[in-house]
Write a structure and sequence with these properties.
alpha/beta; Helicase, Ruva Protein, domain 3; 50% helix
């Protein structure tokens, strides 16, 4: 389990050496996916694909886009239609992040639900280091509303772009361009990266833990099954302050199973006494 401060310290250490070594490993870029959630305008999807391709990124994931495929997306891609053709369309953000070990949400403002707030260079260093062992993701929200709290709860960190505080509204494709550029600069300047400190749980493994947690808390009568949202969001916020390793998820789920079994034994005993 990696704390929030440790998370930022590690990103800073990686940045200290970021421009010292070449050549870069092309496999790292292939493990970085750009995830666009609930995109309203197909032209923004095409423009984002163009921004990605100019910086060597190719993995585009689309979560519940309003309109796709579309001729406007093709036109705005301007030569990056191959990225659109191979883009993966997902029904939910959880599906898009299922096999990732790190997902960073991009937002124009700080959000309490995610403890770690990174600059684009810090985020790039973190993504490239973790991309050595598997897929990682940058998540961009809807053009109007951005990322919802529920979507941010699926991310392990937040990236903010230091824009003009009086007018910090970036076009979606422009934000993708900024982050893609930062990733490429970090990638070009660093031949090797320290191995991740732990065997991080995937998004799917963490989501299954949250599902197990909700069921167990309901069975223990700690959670109202009719309205679990507020408590579960707070618990997600608690766990988002750390990154869970696979082993830690297994331990936590083992504890939940033991608590459930103890509750079931107590229930059976009460039922026998009542007979």
């Amino acid at each position: 389990m990696v704390s929030g401060n440790r998370f930022k310290e590690r990103a800073a250490i990686l940045l200290d050496d970021v421009y010292l070594m070449t050549p870069a490993d092309p496999k790292l870029l292939a493990n970085i996916r750009i995830v666009l959630t609930r995109t309203s305008h197909p032209g923004n999807i095409g423009a984002a694909a163009r921004a990605m391709k100019t910086m060597g990124l190719s993995q585009l994931y689309l979560v519940d886009p309003a309109v796709f495929p579309n001729s406007q997306a093709d036109a705005m891609a301007s030569g990056a239609t191959d990225l659109l053709a191979q883009a993966r369309v997902c029904a939910t953000l959880a599906e898009a992040l299922a096999d990732t070990t790190l997902a960073l949400g991009v937002s124009a403002r700080r959000r309490d639900i995610v403890a770690d707030v990174l600059t684009p260079p810090e985020a790039s260093a973190r993504l490239l280091a973790d991309a050595q062992v598997g897929p990682v993701a940058l998540v961009f929200g809807n053009e109007t509303s951005g990322l919802s709290n529920e979507e941010l709860s699926l991310c392990q960190g937040l990236v903010t772009i230091a824009a003009n505080p009086d007018y910090g509204s970036l076009n979606l494709a422009a934000a993708v361009q900024v982050l893609s550029y930062e990733i490429r600069q970090a990638w070009l300047g660093h031949a090797t990266w320290p191995q991740p400190e732990m065997d991080a749980a995937t998004g799917d493994e963490v989501e299954k833990f949250y599902g197990h947690l909700e069921i167990a808390l309901a069975e223990l009568e700690f959670l109202n099954p009719g309205s679990p949202g507020k408590l579960m969001l707070k618990l997600r916020r608690l766990f988002s302050r750390t990154r869970l390793a696979k082993e830690e998820v297994n331990i936590l789920r083992g504890i939940l199973t033991a608590a459930q079994e103890a509750q079931q034994r107590a229930n059976r005993s009460r039922n026998r006494d009542a007979e």
